[in-house]
Amino acid sequence: MDWCVRVSQKLEYACRAMAQLAKQADGKTITRLDEIAQREAVSSNFLVQILNDLRRSGLITSKRGKFGGYLLTGKAEDISLYDIVQSVEPTLLENTTSSEGQSGASVSKVWHSASNHFASQLKETKLSSMAESDAGPMFYI
């Protein structure tokens, strides 16, 4: 049986948007909001809110105007999945267990350990690996 973590739509879209920006990352190529939305089949209204969270956290920058858009502030290999999670879902890794009751402390300890392991995996997973393309080039007309 394969296990999978339940990821919010907001976090999924953030990862997909960041992967798109990483594919364009040369330090100067700006990607427009509508391009990201179209390539990832997401609502541009929802996406702009997510991109604002990523901008506020310093992972991306934006330029306004006719030729405006978004670009990464750093290299894709230096940005981790943990960084993205902390930008858009900072409560995902919060400790919500209680140490009350006879078993509370031991149950809390197990969940704390699992959370630490999960956070470690997120830190090791780099944006560059999410931006790798396993399909051929896509052409938009």
Q: Can you put this structure into words, describing what you see?
A:
The chain is mainly alpha-helical and about 140 residues long. The protein has a single domain, classed as Winged helix-like DNA-binding domain superfamily/Winged helix DNA-binding domain (Arc Repressor Mutant, subunit A), CATH 1.10.10. The chain contains six helices and two strands. The chain has helices spanning about 10-25, 35-40, 45-55, 80-90, 100-125, 125-130; strands spanning about 60-65, 70. Strands 1-2 form a two-stranded antiparallel ribbon. β1 and β2 (about 70) form a beta hairpin. α1 (about 10-25) packs across α3. It is elongated.
Task: Set out the fold topology.
Blueprint: H1 9-23, H2 33-40, H3 44-56, E1 60-63, E2 69-72, H4 81-88, H5 101-124, H6 127-130
Antiparallel strand pairs: 1-2
Helix pairs in contact: 1-2, 1-3, 1-4, 4-5
